Amino acid sequence: MDGVRAEEAESGGAQDRYGSVAYDTALSTLLAVAVYVVVKGSVDGLRQWRARISLLVVGSGPVGLTAALVAVRSGKVLKLTVLDERTRSALLCRPQQIALDPRSVRFLLSLGVDFDNMEGCWHNEHFFTRIGVFQEYLLSVLEQKKQKVDVRVHLGTKFTDEYLRRIPSGERPQVIVVADGSCGDSCSVLGISSEYIVESCHAYGANATIERLDQRQVPTPEIRAHSLYFDLSAYGIDAAKEQRNSSQTSAKPGFHLKIYGTFRNRYMALACTSADSKMLRFLCHTANSSKCRLQIAQIMKNIFHQSFNAYKTDIEPRVSELTLHRMQCSRRIFEIMLSHRRISAAYIEGDNVAVTVEGEAARMLNFDTVSPEQLAQERADIMSEHSVVH
Length: 390
Prior knowledge:
Blueprint: H1 2-51, E1 53-58, H2 62-74, E2 77-84, H3 88-92, E3 97-100, H4 102-110, E4 121-123, E5 126-130, H5 131-144, E6 150-155, H6 161-166, E7 175-178, H7 186-189, E8 196-211, E9 223-228, H8 239-246, E10 255-261, E11 265-272, H9 278-284, H10 290-311, E12 327-329, E13 334-341, E14 345-348, E15 353-357, E16 363-365, H11 371-386
Parallel strand pairs: 1-2, 1-7, 2-6, 7-15
Antiparallel strand pairs: 3-5, 4-5, 8-11, 8-12, 8-13, 9-10, 10-11, 13-16, 14-15
């Protein structure tokens, strides 16, 4: 009996020793894994922190501010500087209106833009607001990001060679986003070619604007009308007859009209894709005599005048003969052209700086409509997925 008990005691002691060893081994393994995870996370975090870059955005329009917001959200920017030669008052008092389609709205929502706290209106899932309101909101969002990123906004400051020279060598940006518009000269400062490629959009158009000081700066949805034909029979052009004759073969498409902007600042865009109608050839004609040029200019003003009164909203006043002098419009129909820079991205090897040119600084139309802003927003969407700072 004593021998059996001794064997059982010895067996129990061995099991306890094995259990203790297994426990110690498991604990050591868990501790080693925990240390590895902590060290790796710290090293990766340090590496990511050291990999963060300094970014300079030239231009605080919708494209520039959206690019800045994308950079902040990426978590890969250590210092962000936004530069614009316009003062804050000049920047935010712009009367133009911006339209955002559903794709742009979703993109901006992902960046934290709260449309419920922005003055504007919705129509068919599109959002319309004054461009100054949109810029002011994005500036306020960037101001709120100063706790995470070193954000500096310098308005009333022009981007020049002198500005670059004043930046200490250790603080110079690694990435520069040029978004200073079609009239900006930042690309020339950086030595980027100013050569443009000009392409036809295979369309013809004209623009008009009217400012009514007695109306409020209230954003409005776009108004669109299609297949418009104008009565120029007094000038020997019967659009209705031409349309009936062409219906036997291929009907000539009419004009497309867009009315947009605030109630105070109304804008109109007229476009047509056909180039072989008598009406379009007449309105595109570059007359040699001043009398003919004045005649075509007056016809254009009458077309915009009648079109606006026919398709305006019910709650806004008509344009009368007394207020017609406030309307400014194209003096004739012109071919719509798209210009885009031959070089829109560059790497300055000596300074180790990557440059990307965005918005109207890279692409622009000679035709005013809401679409160029939309094009820019879509480009910003692409930047968020493929840019250096993402």
